Amino acid sequence: QVQLVESGGGLVQPGGSLRLSCATSGFTFSMFVMRWYRQAPGKERELVATISSVGIGPTYADSVKGRFTISRDNAKNTAYLQMNNLKPEDTAVYYCNAQHRSLPVYKYWGQGTQVTVSS
Asked: I need a surface site. Which of 65, 79, 85, 106 has the fewest CB within 10 A?
């Protein structure tokens, strides 16, 4: 059974930091590209960051470059999103996504974790 479980969300003041985790099971993690998306109320889901199956060449949305860092630990089947200098506009539900690096039809989603940036 495929599972992606996000954790680490919460309420943080502007300028603060959070680290999101996406613990996975039920598939060969090292064969999958990992992505973090977010969706704010009334807005479309937005791609935030991507990391390859072997952890190289991460890419980021312009809105988070220099503040967010995506990483992964293939030994722990877990992906991370370190978020620094958070802004109110980062408030959203954050979702992790796994997609097979060669067979894109295999695509899985987590349930999401809420991040709220407010003073």
From this structure: 65
**Residue 56, pLDDT score:** 87
- Whether 57 has a pLDDT exceeding 90, the answer reads no
Burial 35-74 (b: 16+ CB within 10 A, else e): bbbbeeeeeeeeebbbbebeeeeeebeeebeeebbbebeb
What is the tens place of the pLDDT at every residue in 39-52?
Answer: 999 999 999 999 99
Cα-trace Rg, the chain: 14
Question: Which two structure tokens, joined as six digits, stand for 80?
Answer: 């991370």
Nearest to 36 by CA among 74, 9, 1, 75: 9
